[in-house]
Design brief:
single chain, alpha+beta, Beta-lactamase, 7-stranded mixed β-sheet, 9 strands, globular
């Protein structure tokens, strides 16, 4: 049994956005307009602590279901508790045909994370169990608005991050990724490194781009898309979160999220190794 709970929380790592460290960039609005979505984007320069933000109020004050971005935490809890023995641990496919072809086979953790397999991580959550999952959410204060608030798992342990019973702000998402990048979450460093490897989708001479996507639906049936992560240029990290929403339940979040992220990063001067 490898469960170790530390008295650290996400609630205490929310970044103070003030006029002194936030630039609200109106030029970023065009990316939301042309893709017919509402939403927010924020980028934090780790060296200066400064933010570039579109839609500050949504970034800081609005919360949404985490959807598959919760795989970051689910992976870490699974590894820490031994329910995932390593990122090469295979869970057998349950034989149910799903809309994503890459899900319809046996997968290990690394593969399941990168193709965002729902069935793999639902099984991980069931193995962790509701009480242990709750213990870790309490420790992390994941989704909590204050350090004293308790976010309770109100529905099944294998679906609470998908059905709007758990919500998180974009600000908290960015804080989580920053702590993960620096191995500052309350999990063994080895396990944080495993998750970061799974998040690293692009690595070349100009930049390293790591992220996790998420796709779900609000209570009103609006499609919600996430992409959270970091971009590293010249060994210098910047952390970002993109949150988008469309009233069209069939909106193509699968491709739009990454395209929007890269378009925004390019406008801000990234992806060419010049930062």
């Amino acid at each position: 049994m490898r469960t170790i709970v530390y008295g650290l929380s996400l609630a205490v790592i929310l970044f103070a956005c003030s006029p002194n460290n936030v630039k609200q960039d109106k030029s970023l609005e065009k990316f939301f307009t042309e893709n017919k979505v509402e939403g927010c984007f924020a980028l934090m320069d780790n060296a200066s602590g400064k933010f570039t933000v579109h839609n500050l109020s949504r970034f800081r004050d609005s919360s949404y279901l985490p959807a598959s971005t919760f795989k970051i935490v689910n992976s870490l809890i699974g590894l820490q508790t031994g329910k995932i023995s390593s990122d090469s641990m295979i869970i057998k496919w349950d034989g149910v045909e799903r809309r994503i072809a890459d899900w319809n086979k046996d997968l290990n953790m690394y593969e399941a994370f990168r193709v965002s397999s729902v069935y793999y991580y639902q099984e991980v959550a069931r193995r962790i169990g509701k009480d242990t999952m709750q213990l870790w959410l309490d420790s992390l204060k994941y989704g909590a608005k204050t350090d004293t608030e308790k976010v309770v798992i109100k529905t099944a342990v294998d679906s609470f991050w998908l059905n709007n019973s758990l919500k998180i702000t974009p600000d908290q998402q960015l804080g989580l990724v920053k702590r993960l990048y620096f191995d500052q979450l309350p999990f063994f460093k080895t396990y944080q490194e495993m998750v970061k490897r799974a998040m690293l989708f692009e690595s070349n001479t100009n930049y390293r781009l790591g992220y996790k996507t998420g796709w779900g639906f609000t209570e009103k049936g609006h499609a919600i898309g996430w992409i959270v992560g970091w971009i590293e240029e010249n060994n210098h990290p910047y952390f970002f979160v993109l949150n988008i929403e469309s009233p069209d339940k069939d909106y193509d979040m699968w491709t739009v999220r990454v395209k929007m992220l890269k378009d925004i990063l390019k406008q801000l001067g990234f992806l060419e190794g010049k930062m």
